[in-house]
């Protein structure tokens, strides 16, 4: 009984210690005139990476599923298929990374705070 | 997101030791850095650390080579064979002569990516300057090798496509696609490593204790994959430039 209580207490302490920086967060002051621009830029930045991730994930899933079918039909061709799969996945992923970079740029600029 | 990054201890130490003479030399050349406190930026110091590390490790372990490999030598041979097999798979038997360039770029990028996981250091590849340097050197190298393997005029013929009548249409398109290669190479590597470091910084600013650990484990995976992808694409570009076209 005491042992479990000790473990629970340790766990609780740990959770509080891990979560305490959350309480120290404070919101930065934004110029009220530009606040709508700031909000809009955050929404646009989030929307870009969401759309790109969804489209990229769909295409990668398609590529992987057809590669699996190909390998299970003809296991002898596995090295070639794997090579082409990785190459294709990289090319798909590059576009998602471009979108991510644009999102990061939009969020780092923080329109409305400085403009 | 400002204030999350701080200047690294090693960078400040390096600048204290070498900052003044470097500033004097740059002043002679007519270059005046904006930041006189730290004239050498952090990514250059990190690049130097990677270069020193690789030179020391690889240089020390290539001493006393023998026909029957010791443990160190077999690890080295494994590394070289990995690059060689990749080149032979992509280009063919004549691809073995590109091992020095491909191997050194691959090892540099791999160790540069992994350096960011060491506390107190950062990945030099999370700055666009470093990745653009690697990508431009690959760009120059594969054109040079293509010209060397086929001669200048026959290499130019690569760009015109199969039908001579369509050549004026295809030539600009091919030129643009060749110039987009270093851009995509550098942006891909930079985006991956930068985003991964930013993710770890953001997660650590929310919960600094345990939560960043799984993301750092994923970071090891991304570092290896990105180095492999960079090397793979460089091999494919070299293979495309060197390949002899059949007569028709």
Write the layout of secondary structure elements.
The complex is a heterodimer of chains A (115) and B (248).
Chain A: H1 2-23, H2 35-73, H3 78-109
Chain B: H1 9-28, H2 42-61, H3 71-90, H4 99-115, H5 128-150, H6 152-157, H7 167-206, H8 212-242
Helix pairs in contact in B: 2-4, 4-8, 5-7, 5-8, 7-8
Provide structural commentary.
The complex is a heterodimer of chains A (115) and B (248). The radius of gyration of chain A is 24 Å and the shape is flat. In chain A, helix 2 (35-73) runs antiparallel to helix 3 (78-109). Chain A has a domain at 30-109: F1F0 ATP synthase subunit C (F1FO ATP Synthase, Up-down Bundle), CATH 1.20.20. Chain A has helices spanning 2-23, 35-73, 78-109. Chain A is mainly alpha-helical and 115 residues long. With 248 residues, chain B is mainly alpha-helical. Chain B has 2 domains: 1-40, no CATH class; 47-242. Chain B is 71% helix and 0% strand. The N and C termini of chain B lie far apart (59 Å). Chains A and B meet through helix 1 and helix 3 of A and helix 7 and helix 8 of B.
Key terms for this structure?
heterodimer, A: 115 residues, F1FO ATP Synthase, B: 248 residues, mainly alpha, 2 domains, 8 helices
């Amino acid at each position: 009984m005491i042992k479990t209580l000790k473990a629970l207490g340790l766990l609780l302490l740990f959770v509080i210690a891990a979560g305490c920086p959350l309480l120290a967060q404070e919101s930065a002051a934004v110029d009220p005139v530009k606040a709508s621009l700031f909000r809009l830029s955050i929404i646009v930045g989030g929307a870009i990476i969401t759309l790109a991730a969804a489209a990229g994930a769909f295409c990668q899933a398609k590529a992987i599923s057809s590669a699996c079918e190909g390998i299970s039909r003809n296991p002898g061709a596995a090295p070639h298929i794997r090579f082409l799969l990785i190459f294709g996945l990289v090319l798909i992923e590059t576009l998602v990374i471009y979108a991510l970079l644009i999102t990061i740029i939009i969020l780092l600029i923080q329109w409305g705070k400085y403009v | 997101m400002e204030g999350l990054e701080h200047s690294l201890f090693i960078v400040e130490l390096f600048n204290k030791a070498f900052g003044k003479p470097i500033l004097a030399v740059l002043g002679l050349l007519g270059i005046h850095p904006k930041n006189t406190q730290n004239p050498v930026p952090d990514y250059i110091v990190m690049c130097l650390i990677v270069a020193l590390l690789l030179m020391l490790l690889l240089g020390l372990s290539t001493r006393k080579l023998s026909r029957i490999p010791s443990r160190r030598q077999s690890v080295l041979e494994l590394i070289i064979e990995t690059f060689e097999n990749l080149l032979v798979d992509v280009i063919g038997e004549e691809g073995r002569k590109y091992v020095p360039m491909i191997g050194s770029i691959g090892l540099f990028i791999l160790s540069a990516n992994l350096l960011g996981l060491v506390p107190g250091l950062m990945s030099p590849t999370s700055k666009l300057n470093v990745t653009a340097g690697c990508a431009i050197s690959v760009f120059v190298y594969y054109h040079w090798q293509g010209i060397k393997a086929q001669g200048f005029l026959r290499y130019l013929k690569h760009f015109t496509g199969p039908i001579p009548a369509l050549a004026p249409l295809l030539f600009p398109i091919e030129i643009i696609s060749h110039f987009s290669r270093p851009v995509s190479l550098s942006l891909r590597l930079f985006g991956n490593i930068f985003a991964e470091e930013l993710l770890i910084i953001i997660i650590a600013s929310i919960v600094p204790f345990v939560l960043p650990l799984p993301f750092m484990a994923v970071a090891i995976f991304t570092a290896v994959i990105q180095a492999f992808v960079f090397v793979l694409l460089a091999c494919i570009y070299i293979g495309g430039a060197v390949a002899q076209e059949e007569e028709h």
